[in-house]
Design goal:
Elements lengths: L17 E5 L6 H18 L3 E4 L18 H15 L3 E4 L3 H8 L4 E4 L7 H9 L3 E5 L9 H10 L5 E5 L2 E2 L5 E2 L4 H5 L4 E5 L5 E2 L8 E2 L4 H11 L3 E7 L13 E2 L3 H19 L1
Parallel strand pairs: 1-2, 1-12, 2-3, 3-4, 4-5, 5-6, 6-9, 9-12, 12-13
Antiparallel strand pairs: 7-8, 10-11
Helix pairs in contact: 1-2, 1-8, 3-4, 4-5, 7-8
Family: Belongs to the KdsA family.
GO molecular function: 3-deoxy-8-phosphooctulonate synthase activity
Main location: cytoplasm
Amino acid sequence: MQLEVIPQLKYTNSNNFFLLAGPCAIEGEDMALRIAEKVVSITDKLQIPYVFKGSFKKANRSRIDSFTGIGNEKALKILGKVSKTFKVPTVTDIHEVSDATMAAEYVDVLQIPAFLVRQTDLVVAAAKTGKVVNLKKGQFMSPESMQHAVTKVKDSGSDNAWITDRGTMFGYQDMIVDFRGIPTMKQYAHVVLDVTHSLQQPNQSSGVTGGRPALIGTMARAGIAAGVDGLFMETHFDPSNAKSDGANMLDLSLLEKLLTDLVALRETVNGFDS
């Protein structure tokens, strides 16, 4: 697919990686606008094609008392306001077939969570909206198996699919990214590396997922060096108080330096490809 099919996506001819970034969950309007404003400012400066990310609900949670959202319609309207205010596309994840058409009214990219990427009805429903479908690679799936998820999108009448690698389970409480899978998956679709969820440490006895955010830069640089088309990262101005996935988020204050370094690295990698 061509990135140009996404409404309001800027700098598609910059030969840069594209970026999906924002908070894990939409916690409220002010926080979403604050994060979007900062990321838009940085990506405009660096000419990075940018899609604002925010989950309108969190259906996959370890405990029943974990934060799940502020209400579907309320959160989706905030995503719509972010798009309108800053003239950027948006992405959110869906969990049920009925979510697809509902979310498609407000966002430009529908994301299929890793645990659900084999759910045929969900993938087909997302594809039939005509939106770009971002397929998270299951933590239990091989890179080769993702061709079948992409084929489901294509067989549903759409060529607009991405694959996002978010790591593979290594034991019970760690994730590993196998960079050998990047060129394999690029045969099927644009490939994105999720540099924050790949550093999760799930299945903690507390029921709260841990993470290793100090390695976000390392993971991102490795992804660019391996030739990924895009990066996915969750960021927040106060990760320790984020309502979801704060343990593996990037502090927003660190984002500009990281992206500046990654743009320079991408330029070097582009030179190797030529």
